[in-house]
Amino acid sequence: MTEELTDADKQILLLLARQALENGVRGKSLPTVNEKLLSPITAALEDYRFPPVHHSELAWIKIEISRLTIPQTLIYKNTDDLVARLRPGIDGVILRDSSRRATFLPQVWAQIPEKEKFLSHLCVKMGADPQYWQQKHIDVQIYQVEDFHEDDKPADTDKS
Asked: 48-105, pLDDT tens digit by residue?
């Protein structure tokens, strides 16, 4: 990441995410944005891992945005070297093998602090055996994030 987002940039992104979430839950169209610059925001309504957000939950949702650096290939010799090179809480990790791919943001280290378990869970997310990272030399990339979030207070949402 060559330049950090300004506080104004962060507020605009948080507002856009909040508007998209609220409009999506209410069945309204998404806010007007330059779609060439942004990817669709679908996690709240179309992520197969979670039930869609309900209108009654809007006031309690705290939006967090993670801006990722460009992933860098992690060169490693063997599994011990791979484990040694990972930096918990700092690096997000991408595993890639053929068409399979999975990533965990650096924030996931808070739930899975052991490096070996982190990699095993990431393999499962990729659709592979938990020990796959120990059985085959797979492509590993790392990245860092700049993360920011809404205030801790419940959002003042329109009840319509």
From this structure: 777 888 889 988 888 888 889 999 999 999 999 999 999 999 999 999 999 999 999 9
How many other C-beta atoms are found inside a 10 Å radius of the C-beta of residue 31? 14
DSSP per residue, 25-75: HTTPPPPP--TTTS----HHHH-TTSPPPPGGGGGG---EEEEEPPPEE--
Query: Would you call 93 helix, strand, or coil by DSSP?
Result: strand
pTM beyond cutoff 0.90 = no
Backbone conformation region of residue 119, classed left if phi is above 0, alpha if psi is from -120 to 50, else beta: alpha
As given in the structure block, the two tokens for residue 17 are 């995410």
- Alpha carbon distance 108, 97 (integer Å): 21
What does the block give as tokens for 118? 């982190």
Q: Which helix (H) or strand (E) holds 22?
A: helix 7-25
